[in-house]
């Protein structure tokens, strides 16, 4: 496999669930180290990495009703959860020799820097992995939408969406053994057929700003390296031409 990156700058979206692997609990040591190792492999090729992490392993705003909460404070908890995950992943990455900066859309003075576009761009150019936490800073959004926003803002050439499956299928491969995987899709098909690449707002924003989305399995060997160096594996979602 070629080890020459096809991109100078990428935005990686990780779900909070990825930190927990297949284990009960919130964060699993082995899963966190596995993820950090995969990120380091790409980092060591000199690729500039922006990273958005979710909080679903800890709390999602959609749980509001079950808990009897109002949605907005529930989303605040969700955004705090992304910050916890970002701090953990930042520390794990640091132990492996990656330079990291954690920046939050919400103000957590004394714990993480507040998001600032100039500072983020400068840090990326200086070789820091910039971890964007706190989502968009607004309730009723998701970290998928955050990823499409930050990818647009930092002018990433691709949004890498790490999942537990190896791409996008025409139906749920866990339920249907005859499900077929797409190697390539257009934004229009993904949206029209409601293929759950990411949430629709995120897909629409990537289409608007011409940022391809590459969906791949983070736990499959070399999948992220292949996506970054060969634009292969998983499913690549691009514009219509
Ligand atoms: N969230 C939010 N605004 C945002 C991003 C996230 O309110 O801009 C909250 C929302 O409650 C969401 C939670 O943070 O459910 C965790 O994010 P997400 O569900 O996207 O995490 P993931 O599924 O990727 O782990």
From TrEMBL:
Species per Swiss-Prot/TrEMBL record: Simkania negevensis (strain ATCC VR-1471 / DSM 27360 / Z)
Catalysed reactions, semicolon-separated: UMP + ATP = UDP + ADP
Residues that, per the record, bind ATP: 13-16, 56, 60, 163, 169, 172
Function, in words: Catalyzes the reversible phosphorylation of UMP to UDP.
Name the UniProt record assigns to this protein: Uridylate kinase
Designated gene of the protein: pyrH
Activity regulation details: Inhibited by UTP.
Annotated binding of UMP, by residue: 55, 75, 136-143
Keywords, sorted A to Z: ATP-binding, Cytoplasm, Kinase, Nucleotide-binding, Pyrimidine biosynthesis, Transferase
């Amino acid at each position: 496999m070629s080890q020459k990156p096809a991109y100078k700058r990428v935005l990686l979206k990780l779900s909070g669930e990825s930190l927990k692997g297949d284990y009960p609990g919130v964060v699993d040591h082995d899963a966190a180290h596995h993820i950090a190792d995969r990120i380091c492999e790409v980092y060591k090729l000199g690729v500039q990495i922006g990273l958005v992490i979710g909080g679903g392993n800890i709390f999602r705003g959609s749980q509001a009703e079950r808990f009897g909460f109002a949605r907005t404070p529930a989303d605040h908890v969700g955004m705090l959860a992304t910050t916890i995950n970002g701090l953990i992943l930042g520390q794990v990455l640091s132990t492996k020799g990656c330079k990291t900066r954690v920046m939050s859309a919400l103000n957590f003075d004394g714990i993480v820097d507040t998001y600032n576009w100039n500072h983020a761009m400068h840090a990326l150019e200086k070789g820091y992995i910039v971890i964007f936490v706190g989502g968009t800073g607004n309730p009723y959004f998701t970290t998928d939408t955050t990823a499409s926003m930050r990818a647009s803002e930092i002018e990433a050439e691709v949004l890498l969406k790490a999942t537990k499956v190896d791409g996008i299928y025409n139906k749920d491969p866990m339920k249907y053994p005859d499900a077929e995987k797409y190697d390539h899709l257009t934004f229009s098909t993904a949206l029209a057929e409601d293929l759950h690449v990411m949430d629709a707002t995120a897909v629409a924003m990537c289409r608007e700003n011409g940022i391809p989305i590459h969906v791949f399995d983070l736990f499959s060997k070399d999948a992220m390296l292949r996506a970054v160096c060969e634009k292969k594996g998983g499913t690549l979602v691009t514009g219509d031409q």
